[in-house]
Design goal:
Length: 274
C-alpha cells in the first residue's frame, strides 16, 4: 500500500512538473497578459501536453508552431520599428556569432547591428537590432540553425519587438563543404570569405581563379573556432600550398585588402590526409 502511494505521488508530481514547465514556456512566449486572456483556448490546444516535449524538455519550436497555427502569435508589427533579437548559449561565443550570422544571411537578413554582447559566468549573450515591420520567424531560424547542429531550446518575449532565444550548441558545427583526398572543392563565385572543413586533411593546395588578384590571408581554427594560425602573403599570388596545424578543423580563405580580389573563387585540393 505504501509502495502504491509513493508511485502515485511521483506520477502526479511528474505530471504537475510537466504542466508547470509547459505553462512556463507558454507564458514566456506569449507574455502574462496574452497567456491569461487566452487560457481557455490554450488549455484546448495543449491538452495533450506530452506531444510538446522532447524527452523531459519542452519542445519550444513545436509549441511555437501550435501557437502560430492558432493565431496566438503574430510576428507582424503595426509599424516599422527597431526589433531586437537576443541569443544566449553556454557554448563558444565566437562559434555562436558565426553560426547565427551565417543563418541570418542564408535567410536573407543582412542589415543589422550588434546592440550588446557580454559573458556572464558560463553564458554568452549576443543581441542584434534591425528595423522592420515583422519579427524573424523562430521556426525558420531554427530550421536554418539545425543545418549547423544547433537548436532553439527556449524563447522569451519582452514585448512584440524584443525576442530572446537560448541556443543549444552541444552538437554545433559549421555548415560548410568538407575537404578530403577524394573530393576537390571549387568555391562559388561571390564576394565572401571561403570556409572549408579540413578536419580530415593535413596539407592543402589552394589555386586562385585567374581573374582574381589574390593577396592571401588564410586562417586556421579548431573545432570551437579558436584561432590557431594566420598565414599572410603580401603579394599577388595564384597558388599556395599549406600545412595545417594539428588541431585544425576549419580553414578560412580571405584577402588582405578586399574580398573583391577573390570574388571569382578557388579550387581547393587535399594533398595529404591525417
Amino acid at each position: 500500500m505504501v509502495k502504491l502511494f509513493i508511485a502515485l505521488f511521483f506520477v502526479c508530481f511528474s505530471l504537475f512538473a510537466d504542466s508547470t514547465s509547459l505553462d512556463s514556456s507558454l507564458n514566456s512566449i506569449l507574455g502574462a497578459r496574452s497567456y491569461n486572456a487566452n487560457k481557455g483556448l490554450i488549455d484546448i490546444i495543449f491538452k495533450q501536453k506530452s506531444n510538446y516535449y522532447n524527452g523531459s524538455s519542452v519542445d519550444v519550436i513545436k509549441v511555437m508552431q501550435a501557437l502560430q497555427n492558432n493565431k496566438l502569435v503574430n510576428l507582424s508589427l503595426k509599424t516599422s520599428q527597431d526589433i531586437t533579437l537576443s541569443f544566449s548559449t553556454k557554448g563558444s561565443p565566437i562559434f555562436l556569432v558565426k553560426i547565427i550570422s551565417d543563418a541570418l544571411r542564408n535567410i536573407g537578413y543582412y542589415k543589422y547591428m550588434t546592440k550588446e554582447s557580454h559573458i556572464a559566468g558560463s553564458e554568452f549573450l549576443w543581441s542584434i537590432e534591425y528595423s522592420g515591420d515583422s519579427v524573424l520567424d523562430p521556426i525558420v531560424l531554427d530550421a536554418e540553425l539545425a543545418k549547423s547542429g544547433c537548436h532553439i531550446i527556449d524563447i522569451q518575449t519582452a514585448n512584440p519587438a524584443s525576442w530572446s532565444y537560448e541556443i543549444d550548441m552541444n552538437r554545433a558545427h559549421l555548415s560548410v563543404a568538407k575537404l578530403d583526398l577524394a573530393t576537390n572543392i571549387t568555391s562559388e563565385r561571390d564576394m565572401s570569405e571561403k570556409w572549408v572543413d579540413v578536419s580530415s586533411v593535413s596539407k592543402v593546395s589552394i589555386d586562385s581563379n585567374r581573374a582574381n588578384s589574390w593577396y592571401p590571408s588564410i586562417t586556421f581554427y579548431d573545432q570551437n573556432l579558436h584561432l590557431l594560425k594566420v598565414q599572410k602573403i603580401d603579394s599577388k599570388t595564384s597558388q599556395v600550398s599549406v600545412d595545417l596545424p594539428s588541431d585544425t578543423v576549419y580553414m578560412k580563405i580571405a584577402d588582405l585588402y578586399s574580398l573583391n580580389n577573390i570574388k571569382n573563387g578557388f579550387n581547393i585540393e587535399a594533398q595529404a590526409s591525417r
